[in-house]
Design a protein that fits this description.
alpha+beta; 5 helices
């Protein structure tokens, strides 16, 4: 190989290639920054990440609302149940649960019926809530599912849970919490109402 001004041609070609590559990288870097500026109003990646984190921290999570589908079914099975009152009780359980975790600034944006399940002698209404809370100085937006259970068949449920329900008057076993009267002594039993629905579990999504 020859030389140009005392510099070997391979070195010159390599240097030219390096300059071309550097120029190409710089071009696309500048283009990417312009694109970021046009799309997001800033070409500073750190500012963009911080802005996105702040936006996420202040945007409530959407909830999967199946209320219009399941509430008619629930009201058909439990005509005496005030589901809105039960929703409020579920939210109180959720706030208590979060409070026990030591978080602050708890705010429930919205709660909808997510599902209605019937099996193994029980009925479960699952409420999904969009929730905001603070842990330290950090604001969190998240979702929780709160499961409220009604024991429909005490015997069926008790097979796996050791659960039993008795008449408050004679002590006789009640096979269904929906019974209006005790089948042994005939005494009136408290009808289905909000108080027989209990918290089953709470889960964060």
């Amino acid at each position: 190989m020859g030389t140009i001004l005392g510099i070997s041609i391979p070195v010159i070609l390599l240097s030219a290639a390096a300059l071309t590559l550097a120029g190409t990288i710089w071009y696309f870097y500048r283009k990417a920054k312009r694109t970021m500026k046009d799309l997001f109003g800033t070409d500073n990646l750190g500012e963009l990440i911080k802005s996105r984190e702040e936006e996420e921290a202040n945007t409530p999570k959407s909830v999967s609302g199946m209320t219009s589908i399941y509430v008619p079914q629930i009201q058909k099975d439990f005509p005496e149940l005030n589901w809105i009152e039960l929703r409020g009780i579920a939210e109180k359980h959720l706030k208590k649960h979060l409070g026990e975790k030591g978080v602050s600034g708890i705010r429930i944006h919205k709660t909808e019926v997510l599902s209605y399940l019937k099996n193994s002698g029980t009925c479960v209404i699952v409420f999904q809530s969009g929730v905001q809370y603070h842990t330290g100085t950090k604001k969190i937006q998240t979702r929780f599912n709160t499961h409220m259970m009604y024991i429909q068949d005490a015997i069926e449920y008790g097979k796996d849970n050791g659960f039993s329900v008795t008449c408050p008057h004679c002590g006789g076993a009640l096979t269904s919490l929906g019974a209006k009267f005790c089948e042994y002594c005939g005494s009136e039993v408290i009808p289905i109402n909000i108080h027989v629905w209990n918290l089953h579990k709470i889960e964060e999504l």
